[in-house]
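seq/struct pair 1
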Amino acid sequence: MNPNDAALSPFGVRTNGPTIHDFPEEARAFLRDNGQMRVYQRGETVQRTRVPLTAAAWLQKGRLRTVVYQPDGSEHARGWVMTEELFGLFNILLPDCPALNHLVVDTDEAHVLHFSRDLLLDMMHRFPDARWGVSVALSRRIAQMSDFIDVTGPGLLEDKLRALLVWWSSHYSVPARDGSVELWVTQNDLANGVGASRQRVQMELKAMRDRGELDVAYRKIVLRPRFFEQLQATQG
């Protein structure tokens, strides 16, 4: 797999979000040499919702949980920021654009390299190829936002849950030897992602498990080949 198409986390989990590999090597080295590194611990907040950002960031180690808070106070899990992924580019390039996502460390540690708007513009001035990289990175993030809107729109809970499982499996899954796919997510993550109660999601997961489409383990959902066969039959 081309590194420009996906990042590989310590868990072997892939994401199609914007990564540092969208930038040429000399631009990456420039950020490494001039950015500000900070190490966060599990549960620490890296980015707060609706707070203006003074820097974008490059996640060099760990994983960040992404949560969006709705006007009524409810929260929706949007996914994760994975190792090598970039975040905050929109917010520092657009004036008065606060963060929409709340990012919390989801691993024992997270190593985050912060870089200011001035440093990003300096990088783009020094390395013209990096301008294309920034455009690609922003396009990837827009594509992810479109995916999220599609997944969390109106519809039956079963359909929304299937769509979320498919989307997350294409972004964050770990392939298993028997053709299954492992997702290191909790039932709470799924409930937040589809905007439903944990109890209702449990009922839908039990029905899918009884049909042989998936298994539920501790902090993990295993999608069996039958899940994808059912998906193909529905789409066909």
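seq/struct pair 2
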Amino acid sequence: MEPGTFTLPGCEALHGWAGRLKRGETVQVTPKVEVSSLLRPQWTAPLFGLPAERWSRNQYMSVYQELTACRNAAKKRDDSAAFSRLHQAAKVVGKGGQAMRRVDRFREEAAENVERILGHQASPALPKIVEAAQMALRGKDPTEFVQAERGSYPRLGYLFGDANELAAYADYLTERDRQELIERLNAGKGEVLAKSSAIEKQLADARAAIAAAPATLAGVRSLRELNDSPLLARIGLEEAQALRAELQQRQNAIHAELRRQQAARKARAEAETNRPMDLEPRMTQLFHGEDLQELNFDGLAVGMSKEEAISTLKRQWKYEYDDGMSLDNAFVATRPLHPQLEKERRNGGRLQLGVMDDGTVGQLRYVEHYRAMLVNTQPQAWLHKRLGSPDGIESARGGRLLTWKDGDLRLQVLATNQTDVFWRGAGYASRLAISIWSEDYEQYLADLGERCHQLLEEKRDTGIVGMNEAMWFARHCNLSGNAKDHAGI
């Protein structure tokens, strides 16, 4: 017979084994489970190949059935002594099977408990739980140890509950069962310690990340993420409290630094706002030419075609239609220019083309706002060097309205520290307005105004205006019967 292989012996061997039965004599299989001494390992292992404590439910049933069959055979041959021995042995096996089924159940539950312990998520508490489980399997009450350790890991208290459950199972396990489970815990301890070391590394990495968090909003966000990290639920209470204290201390330091940076930026912005605008670089950028007839407004000129002007604004100026609409031929800076404009403390301005019916540009009107006060005499001095003295100077809206005339061309410039409520609310303190136009455009606007007046009079006299005339009026005229546009600033 191979050791470890269950085999049913014949009736003769079973009869000899049954003869060893002593009524009332028992052996302890586990601290809380006793069976008849007939099932002691020293007798069952040599006879059946396995000790009774290792038999399965089916194997108990097969032994019981074989004893019953042998008993019935003894009855048929009128062997009352054999019948009695085998009958008592069958009863012992039946009861023993019932007792061992309890042992089997607790063996399975204990094994599942051990695997559950070893499979828990990594935490510094896990090695302590394994230690408590081994104490329970060795017959030592782990309650005091568990209570002491649980205080450090209040969120992980349910894990220590596994060790307490194992203590309840231990009294129903055989010595061999307990030893196998202890060995399983020993075998898994290396992985548990590795998991625990990984947690310790994560903890060290977290502390390094806290110390290295930059004094930026991104640094604040990274600290918030660390504060919500699952790591805090897997470490000891004292460690978690210490880590949160480090997080709070670093957050306080970053917020203090951000407030300092904000104050510094505000101080710089105020200083920058108080520094007057120097308009010379902008004037040099916009005006090209030594007299009004040769004047070129950064690639634009009165008399060029509308298509050429729009192409220049889009390609050279990098401007686009205001609000994306071409109704009044107005253009503003595109979004990619905004960072540079902000750096130069200006909004990029709004340029409007005055286009006549033949498609030529009759007027260029440009208004740009600045985030600082300006010296409103600076444009006059700069232009005087190139165009000579202005032909007209008028006081206007906090500045001087300068007018130059040369042949059929006109130029007006106004630099002022007065802006309307909208621009002041947006942080702009001054503006520069420029208009270049021709006498032809003045005449064009006069003709428009006369036509507008005529249509308005027709409407008043007859109450009827054709659809085409109404559309033309809406495009070119205001409600007073004058042209919408005007020459100059």
